[in-house]
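We treat protein structure as text, and this decision shapes the records that our systems exchange. The remainder of this section carries one protein's record, kept here as part of the documentation:
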Amino acid sequence: MSRGRHRRPAPRRWLRQLLSGLVALPLSALPFVAYASLTPEGRLVRDRALVALFPPKLPSLDGAQLAAARAAAPSFSGRVMALAYHGIGSASDGDGGFVVSPARFAEHLATLRAAGMHVVTARQIARSFEGGRPLPANAVMISFDDGRTDAMMFADPLLEDAHMAATMFVITGAASKPGIYYASWDKLEGYARSGRWDLESHTDRLHVEREAAGGRDLPALTSLERGESLAEYRSRVRADLGRASAAIAQHTGQAPVAFAYPFGAYGAERTNDAALRTVLRQEVERRYAVAFHQDDQASVPLAGADDDRLGLRRLEVGDWSGLQLLKRIRDASHNTAGLEQPAPSPESAGAPAGTGGAEPVPPAASIPPSPSTSAPRSPSSSPAPPGTTPRSPTPSTTPRAPAPATTLPPGAVTPPIPATPTTTVPPPSTTVPPTTAPPVVTTTTTTAAPTTTTTTTDPHGCRSHGGGDVCSSR
């Protein structure tokens, strides 16, 4: 008769099993940690959880920071500084130079507010440039491209905290088939209803680079496909812009009035047919009041109603401090030829310094659409391409007051001036100066246009590793 005996594991064996379990537990989590840290998709998933649990907040600037912001503040009126942001939070762009952290973006908003800057949307700019309500002093447009998830989920709570609004140029085709990178129409509709987001056009399905006729990889918006004629190109672009405008109008209740060229390309260089530039301009003008690109970052000026409205330039914002951003805006005001820069008082700015004047700016969702957004627009009187900045000959659009009838306009030849008193002695000759002034004005206007033509740098290419067949940047 045998007896069964229960044996306990040896102490060393039991200890080894315990240590093995403790080591295996964190090792099993390593794939999830690596996914959330080393892949763009994982970072976005992680960021979504972080925003839900800990929404970003605007920082409180101390006395020294407030004083520094006010001392560095630029001063201008009648124009706007257009800023272009890309990703926020996740480093989903291939080169992280165009991705700023939520803390950095929050610092920018706080500094702009402290400096008395007034944030406006692209819709407000378009309406102002078409003769509507004037822009507030020290106007700034905060804009993003593509409808990216990371940009909107981080920026929205900060905009709400700052009482500001931003413009998002949406790739409508990407919003219709959202993935990890792009917000769906459900999300975009909610953002638009908040009044903090003005949704504008970034094409429907032409934000892509592909092999074009000639074998080069070019933006689809600025190149002919294999075997495509110029008339077929026009039809393709017109249909795409029409779909984009219709989708935005359907989901927001407002037809878009502004456009951002994908990759910043408008046919100046990244094209396989120079004639496309004119055709593209005509098709953009049919639907939009203003259009933006990012050429020549070294000398971006402020945008005004007397500039080429289909070639307005935006400053691409990098990982700068708030004071560095203010300096860039001040430099842009210096790059703006002929800009008069009065120093508005806090009362004339519409809000005390430190608030940024955000409260008087109506939210984007509350601004009714321009009556001309649904109808094709007439061709521009000036054939200047988007890369140029011709001045409008219409005196009412310039910020300067019109000159009296008896004085010559700026730029006129001075020798005739002393001769006029001799012709004004007899009474009938007093009407001579008004009749001779128009030819001088006409000569000045026609000769000034070529001098404002600017050369452009190489257009920017895609800066990211996008998802699917659409680039996730710009």
In short: The longest helix spans residues 11-38. The longest strand covers residues 139-146.
